[in-house]
Amino acid sequence: MKHRLSLLLVIVFCSILSVGYSVNNGVFLDGAGDYVSIPTTTRLDSGMSGASGLTVEAWINPTTLRTGGDTYRNLIVNFCTQLPEYPMVKFYLRDNGKLVFGGRSKASEVYQDTVTDDVLISTGSWQHVAGVLDFVNKTIKIYVNGELKHTRTGVPFVNTEFERGNGGTQHIGINALLSTNQYFHGTIDDMRLWRVARTAEQISFYMDKVVPPQTELLAYWKFDEEQGRIAYDSSNSNIPYNGDLQGGAYFTAGNPTLPVELSSFTATISTHNNVVLTWVTQSETGVMGFYVFRGTDPNLANAQQISSLIDATNTADQKVYVYTDNEINQIGTYYYWLMVADINGSESYHGPIHVTYENTQPGLPNIPVFTELKSVYPNPFNPNTTISYVLAQPSDVLITIFNMRGQEVRSFERSNVAAGPQNLAWDGKDQKGSSLASGVYYIRMQTGADSFFKKAVLMK
User: What does the longest C-alpha to C-alpha distance in the chain come to?
Assistant: First the structure.
């Protein structure tokens, strides 16, 4: 009698896939009544509760800057935590192109902010802005185009973790009171709200890339819709913080340096019980190709690259790509991501979607697991990467890293490691704790009489 494995397919990240973005848009605000509101029934300050910091990022292209001193502001974002106007976070432009950013760690404390010393923002061009509140280290930082431009230290935040108030208005492009002299005039694109103080490296690396869903990403408005009055939240949070376009606000062409979304990324099950991944692009320019990643949890950092480079066509026409994963050999849930690699070295990620691989027939024999050294992710890396491997049975493991001259620079010895998939973090340092130079490194895994090799590139 034949036995069958049944696969239960569950598609997640559906808030993005169902919208089906195929363009890169932003939201245009006319400076005279247009804005985006997040309903108070989905409170951002509730999602921020317990956060050790807060980061706001966005691409902005001001058409004009309102003049008349600091009371005439150009509001980028104003999210309140208590009425009538107690901002959890506020980000705006002065008439002279200086940036002001601030917030509070609890509703009852005094609002704290800082202003850049120099004129940083001009009209008629795209600029990336980021503001960071660090409740633990008592700092406020402002970044422009990935560079730290201003820091205020010794900020008297009362809490080291955010404490919400009783709720308030949540606006993009205007303050809480809808003051006529504070509307933003121009286009805003790719706005992100994080429940953590992002680092300079994280801000500069991801500012022009699509970021995958992750725990610290509370809300993510890409503004890539082509029509309608809803700006969808793409963060995959438990609560979608969708925004409503107010006044005459509308979707229009966004920052051209940002990657265009795939029109779809889906998974199906073949008759041979393999996972078939399919993605569709509407057009391609400057794309080198695609890589598929698979993991056993929804954290991209723990995923393994399972495909070689899948070449792009760089055509103006719609293109359908298909990849079949026939290497699943253990019961469990598997997550998939698609990485788009551009010719200029940038990359973006889409997903995850996930599949639950279930044995529904009692007595079905286990599919054999083979000992192997899997992929290194990320690769290239700087300075951290993860070395993944699989053991068919419990065993002692020795992982040794060599430079291009064959000299041993680092080793990791583990005793009685359990069977199954394993991960080992490497911080790019040698055995003495010194940071290694950029270059190619060879990774050898020894277990019993078997040896396995992989190559990794440290690129600073």
Answer: 83
Distances (CA, A) of 122 to 30, 78, 258, 440: 17, 21, 20, 42
Angle at 209 between CA 292 and CA 96, to 5 degrees: 175
Domains and CATH numbers, the chain: 6-15+260-358 (2.60.40.10), 23-253 (2.60.120.200), 372-458 (2.60.40.4070)
Are the C-beta atoms of 269 and 299 separated by less than 8 Å?
A: no
Q: Are 231 and 27 in contact (CB under 8 A)?
A: yes
Neighbours of 459 (CB within 10 A): 14
Q: Are 339 and 209 in contact (CB under 8 A)?
A: no
Q: What is the pLDDT along the chain (460 residues), one digit of tens a residue?
A: 222 222 333 333 333 333 333 457 899 999 999 999 999 999 999 999 999 999 999 999 999 998 777 778 899 999 999 988 899 999 999 888 899 999 999 999 999 999 999 989 989 999 999 999 999 999 999 999 999 999 999 999 999 999 999 999 999 999 999 999 999 999 999 999 999 999 998 998 888 777 767 889 999 999 988 789 999 998 877 788 999 999 999 999 876 665 555 667 787 777 677 888 988 886 677 788 899 999 888 777 788 899 988 988 877 677 889 999 988 877 788 889 888 887 777 677 787 887 877 654 444 444 556 788 887 888 888 888 989 888 888 999 999 999 887 789 999 999 989 888 888 999 999 999 999 998 889 899 998 878 888 888 898 8
**pTM (2 d.p.):** 0.59
Q: Is 26 helix (H, G, I), strand (E, B) or coil?
A: strand
CB atoms within 10 A of CB 418: 10
Buried b (16+ CB within 10 A) or exposed e, 16-26: bbebebbebbb
Q: Which DSSP string do the residues of 386-410 spell out, in sequence order?
A: EEEEEESS-EEEEEEEE-TTS-EEE
Cα–Cα dist 22/280, whole Å: 9
Beta bridge partners of 129: 58, 144
